[in-house]
Design goal:
Layout lengths: L1 H25 L8 E6 L2 E6 L18 E5 L2 E5 L32 E7 L2 E8 L4 E5 L8 E9 L4 E10 L11 E2 L4 E8 L5 E4 L5 H27 L12 H23 L3 H5 L7
Parallel strand pairs: 9-11
Antiparallel strand pairs: 1-2, 2-12, 3-4, 4-5, 5-6, 7-8, 8-9, 10-11
Length: 283
């Protein structure tokens, strides 16, 4: 009986841990997509749209849980880098099956559009959280910001929403307008401090000489290690005697000094002391 109770307790804890890990893994599923770095010339432009800022603790994420744009009889809800959350004013439209259904409409996608057709608001999912990509707006002017694009594949047509996050370090502005690019492709503009990049100078690396030195040092280290292992296990040496060619390495500083001294004498010529140390010999 005790074994059975212990087994069920362990099983309960196991499923609890699995649920916690699953929940943790589902948080911000595209946060990596919204943290991108682009190399332009010798500079690295890093964008982190979800990183907290002094006045924006959630980064580019709307604190309301969504952004909303209304143009004529069309309403667009979207969230950047995450799914939408509606604590108030949820979408009320038909055909919301692929974005949460009637009871949770808008909660299972990142962009939802409602159009008034025949007196009814009809929903169309135009962006999914898992299909979000981030790219730089202008390669010639990386300071401008990034484009966050989300897509959705439907039974009738494919849709997309591209939001240009323009760098503005002082304020948040928009989105106020909605541009139609195709049959079901739309674009909006948002000015936000999160659209400003962190710039780092991209070094040119070690170069061929540095790479050569690393290779030489690695070969030298491998030579010492292999020689020490061989002399210890096969020849029975211990301590400093394990170092291969120990006599050569101990005499190397003296030989180097002698070489440079002879080289200096060669270029400077014989010194006065050397000339006076010899006396003439008469035959």
């Amino acid at each position: 009986m005790k074994i059975t109770i212990s087994f069920f307790n362990s099983l309960r804890y196991y499923f609890l841990i699995i649920a916690i890990l699953h929940r943790a893994g589902s948080l911000n599923p595209v946060s990596a997509v919204c943290e991108r770095s682009f190399v332009v010339g010798n500079k690295v432009y890093s964008f982190s749209l979800v990183s907290p800022l002094p006045n924006f603790p959630h980064g580019v994420l709307s604190e309301d849980g969504f952004y909303k744009v209304a143009v004529n009889k069309t309403v667009l809800w979207f969230q950047l880098c995450d799914g939408m959350i509606f604590n108030h004013d949820p979408p009320r439209c038909v055909d919301c099956l692929d974005c949460g259904g009637a009871s949770h409409c808008g909660m299972e996608c990142s962009a939802l559009m409602a159009k008034n057709i025949g007196g009814y608001d009809v929903c169309t999912t135009i962006g999914k959280v898992t299909s979000t990509t981030t790219n730089i707006i202008d390669n010639q002017n990386p300071h401008k910001g990034v484009i966050v694009k989300m897509t959705s594949s439907g039974s009738e047509h494919n849709c997309s929403l591209s939001v240009s996050v323009i760098c503005d370090s002082n304020r948040v502005l928009g989105p106020h307008s909605l541009e139609k690019l195709g049959t079901c492709d739309y674009a909006a503009v948002l000015q936000h401090p999160s659209g400003c990049a962190t710039i780092n100078v991209h070094g040119k690396g070690w170069g061929w000489f540095g790479t050569l030195m690393i290779i030489v040092l690695c070969l030298f280290g491998g030579y010492l290690l292999a020689g020490a292992v061989y002399r210890h296990f096969f020849l029975g040496f211990h301590g400093l005697d394990m170092i291969p060619n120990l006599d050569f390495w101990t005499r190397l500083p003296h030989r180097t000094q002698s070489f440079f001294a002879s080289l200096v004498r060669k270029f400077r010529g014989p010194t006065e002391g050397h000339r006076n140390s010899y006396s003439p010999v008469n035959f």
